[in-house]
Amino acid sequence: MSKEEDKFKHSKRLLKDENAIKKQMKIAKDHKVTEFNPKLDQPHRFHKHYVMNCGNPDCFMCANPRKIFKEKTIQEQRFEQDVDNPRDTHSNGIKPNE
Fold first, then answer.
1. CA–CA separation, 40 vs 50, rounded Å?
2. Could you tell me the pTM of the whole model?
3. Cα separation of 96 and 51, whole Å?
4. Residue 1: per-residue pLDDT
5. Given its phi and psi angles, is residue 72 left (phi above 0), alpha (psi -120 to 50 degrees) or beta?
6. How many Cα neighbours within 13 Å face the side chain of 90?
7. Given phi > 0 = left and psi -120 to 50 = alpha, else beta, which region is 32?
8. CA 93, CA 73: separation in Å to the nearest integer?
9. What are phi and psi of 61, to 5 degrees?
């Protein structure tokens, strides 16, 4: 048996999904994506996907910026910094005993 609280949570989830779809449709209309996007015939597809994401991995807007701009990851940058200037301290700032 479902309780009143369960019914309320379920309706709240449905409302949240509907609001997300409405927001994505508003973005599509504001940016005039509606004219050339066949996905807009099925607005429920925007429940978990964004309108401005075309899904093409080679697209400038959708691709990973490290791939497009040849940027290094934060870990790679940190490693290069440590190689150039080695630290003589532990992570808490205390110098190691020799």
1. 11
2. 0.51
3. 53
4. 53
5. beta
6. 6
7. left
8. 24
9. -80, -30
Other beta carbons less than 10 A from residue 29's beta carbon:
13
**78 token code pair:** 């940190």
pLDDT at 52 (0 to 100): 76
Best CA proximity match to 28, nearest among 38, 20, 40? 40
3-state SS string over the chain?
A: CCCHHHHHHHHHHHHHHHHHHHHHHHHHHHCCCCCCCHHHHCHHHHHCCCCCCCCCCCCCCCCCHHHHHCCCCHHHHHHHHHHHCCCCCCCCCCCCCC
86 pLDDT tier (thresholds 50, 70, 90): low
pLDDT in tens, 3-57: 899 999 999 999 998 998 888 888 888 877 766 666 667 777 777 777 777 777 7
